[in-house]
Amino acid sequence: MNSVDNWLNNVKIGVVGLGYVGLPLAVEFGHLFPVVGFDIKSGRIAALRDGHDETRETTSDELAAASQLQLSSDPEALRACNVYIVTVPTPIDRHKRPDLTPLISASETVGAVLKRGDVVIFESTVYPGCTEEDCVPVLERRSGLIFNTDFTVGYSPERINPGDKEHRLPNIKKVTSGSNDETAERVDRLYGRIITAGTFRAESIKVAEAAKVIENTQRDLNIALINELAIIFNRMGIDTEAVLKAAGSKWNFLPFRPGLVGGHCIGVDPYYLTHKAEAIGYRPEIILAGRRLNDSMAGYVAGQLVKAMLKRRVQVEGSRVLVLGLAFKENCPDLRNSKVADLVRELGEYGIAVDVYDPMIDPVEAKREFDIAPIEAPDRGQYDAIMLAVAHNDFGAVRLEEIREFGKENCVVYDLKYALNREIADARL
User: Fold this and answer.
1) Residue 162's pLDDT is what?
2) What's the rounded Cα separation, in Å, for the pair 102 and 98?
3) What is the full DSSP assignment across 90-144?
4) Distance of CA 376 to the CA centre of its chain
5) CA torsion sign, 112 to 113 to 115 to 121?
6) Are 24 and 59 in contact (CB under 8 A)?
7) How does pLDDT run across 136-190, given as a tens digit for each residue?
8) pLDDT tens sequence across 72-99
9) How far apart are CA 428 and CA 379, in angstroms?
10) Straight-line distance from the first to the last Cα atom of the chain, in angstroms, rounded to the nearest whole number
11) Which of 130, 135, 265, 411 is catalytic?
12) Helix (H, G, I), strand (E, B) or coil at 321
């Protein structure tokens, strides 16, 4: 038995942060290793102990099957661990600058229980260099230990796709890295125990950090291109979806679609890369141009809906509009950085009364995050316009094929997601 095998036989894992990323990780590892799943929210821990995951990423059966998983909101419970995996959010502030507050706080928590020989693995999306330049000093200061002498670190970026029941943690290839060769091997072998799709060992932590942040930057730029094309084609009176279907007949055409770019990843990660680029004296024009365009799409869509209403001679000011969907994407309750909230505000600037309906999301969270109070069910025959903003498979009280029943006789139906038949939708992005 080699040293890595011996190490694996004695691993006890602490997962710090039990959100969309951390909980599936804790559950998978909890089948094989002793795991402490830690979250600062005691209510979250209580709900998980009752078998309820508000993110809908794990089921009650999956939670129950993780026989070696212990859940706690007490940081002292982490003290018995020797591997710590940090999976906290890395958002941006209102000035679109990286907000490392949750990450630094988690590093403080881990540093307080860190011991000689321990390994700390970060999964949160960051800019290249953040792990070693921002997190490691906190670990050293809080623990009194020396990096790469007393403890080591790894970085294995998360690739969770909220709401996706096909691409889940075990069948998504995992990038791994470590602060020295031995740690890199340990981290890679550790994840290899739960990732059936296999792992990719990066050359360094900075390479792994950079690989993660460009994954979503690339998607952001591709969507920005399609959004700009949609704007051009709308002015030319050409159906964008028809164009994309025609172009998609070529084998190497990338199947991106226009729309609002929100969420915790695509709409945020590029700002981490541009922040680091500007810190080293380079202004990334293309990345920022894509961000500006995607951030402006809520205003553009609101304007397009208003134009469609005016063409129908619908009085805009004082009108009533139903917006279907508030989550940042389909089939999940995640509200983080939802651009639908921006769309609702933009419509309000026109003097429109907006009802938001989304059975997937937590209405209390919607009120807290956006000051939006979703309705329990829409009224039939009462709306001057209806916007399909998020195409959930299950809209509860609304069947999309009967969407016009909720509108007045002259109602405008705008399909932002290309989910409705052309006979139903009056306008599309």
Assistant:
1) 83
2) 11
3) --B-TTS-B--HHHHHHHHHHHTT--TT-EEEE-S---TTHIIIIIHHHHHHHH-
4) 25
5) negative
6) no
7) 999 999 999 999 999 999 999 999 888 878 889 999 999 999 999 999 999 999 9
8) 999 999 999 999 999 999 999 989 999 9
9) 23
10) 60
11) 265
12) strand
Per-residue pLDDT of 326-355, as tens digits, reads 999 999 999 999 999 999 999 999 999 999
Contact 342, 298 (CB under 8 A): yes
Are 412 and 308 in contact, with CB atoms under 8 Å apart?
yes
What Å distances lie between residue 121 and 16, 83, 154, CA to CA? 10, 7, 4
- Closest by CA to 172, choosing from 357, 24, 339, is 24
Residue 265 falls in the annotated catalytic set: yes
Choose among 240, 334, 337, 339: nearest CA to 298.
Answer: 339
Listed as own residue / partner, the contacts of 98-103 with beta carbons closer than 8 Å and 24 or more positions apart are: 98/126, 98/127, 98/271, 98/272, 98/275, 100/126, 100/130, 100/134, 102/17, 103/130, 103/134, 103/135
CA-CA distances (angstroms) from residue 396 to 150, 179, 339?
54, 49, 22
Tokens of 220: 């952001």
pLDDT per position as a tens digit, 366-422: 999 999 999 999 999 999 999 999 999 989 888 888 999 999 999 999 999 999 988
pLDDT of residue 1: 55
